[in-house]
Design brief:
It is built from eleven helices and eleven strands. The protein is elongated. The strands form three sheets. Strands 5, 7, 8, 9 and 10 form a five-stranded antiparallel sheet that branches. 47% of the residues lie in helices and 19% in strands. By secondary structure, the protein is of the alpha+beta class.
Length: 397
Amino acid sequence: MWSDGLMGLLVGFAKLFLNPFTYIFFIATLFSGYLRVKRERKHFSIRIFNASFEWKTSLLYGLLIGGILSVVSLLVGISIPIEMITLISILTIVSALLLQFRWMSPAYVFGLALIALPLLNKAVPSLSLLEKVIPKDMNAMLPAVTILLSLLLLAEGILVQRNAAKYTTPLFIESKRGKRVGAHETNKLWLVPLFLLIPNGTIISDYSWWPTLPLGESGYSILCVPFGIGFYHLVQGMVAKESIKLVGKQVVTLSILVCIGGIASYFVGFVAFVAVAIAVVGREVISYIHKTRDISTSSYFTSKAVGLVVLGILPNSVADKMEIMVGETITKVNGQNVSTVAEFYEALQINRAYCKIEVLDFNNEIRITQCAVYEGDHHELGFLFPEEEAKLTGQVG
């Protein structure tokens, strides 16, 4: 029994590399990174992160969350028909290829899949080509699908809080008053491989070598499915990290509500439809509330009467070493008050080899940070400021 289970896990994991989404994940994230780099060069005349930034900062997190949730799904015994997995994979691949990461929340993908299934059944009942992607008994699979949806929503909420909030990129946008202001964006796609139990059916039985697990009166196979979870968030009215973390917490709360509905649906079947509807509507409401609030809030990354707010920090720069955070305000440089980029440059000339900066942090407390600046250190400090003329990083000399 244990040897069969181990073999099932190994073969199921091997199938991960046969799923096209495993490779489309890298293609989509790399192309998304390429478009971001073009935007950064346009807005700041410099590349902030390289094109591999997106997948390098998301791959490990997705694999880790997938491993943890795989243990949960196998222990609980979540069983999903292979036909449902196929349809979800198709929707995921299409969204990824179109770079529509925002619509790759599990709430939207699962909701659309459950709407599409009965429509496909009615529209093409006689086409044998689609027989293998249309489950015959939707009612039987709905509770398990709802529980799986709640697990993936939980994964989304955790990934948003722990990963997306840490990795945002600066840009310029036009405010509601037509003024060019700074903002921060996160556009993430995670590859979350999940081990699931697949009931033996028409597709699995086509392969005699496929390992099966006799559980109860039915046989099941273990399959590692690479789910895609996407997230997009644009913030100009507050520090991006705080806004994104709040979204993540709300998605986690939503996942709990959907899970409760999934459990209840084992006793009252129609509750599954209610739970899925709550997932779709709830996820959209979360996005709408944050977008509306952000638009109605005054721009955070804009010129201030006192000090210079930091829009971005170049990695591995002097500014990065000084541990100044995006969203903090620089009030003094080398003892001189600064409120414009020109004043910032002038204050740097006071000491060309050493920089002492006074910073107002998020708690409105002053701290002083300092660092040696060398002529050979790219001649840059690495700050990006939310002023239209601040195309380049603060330069020494």
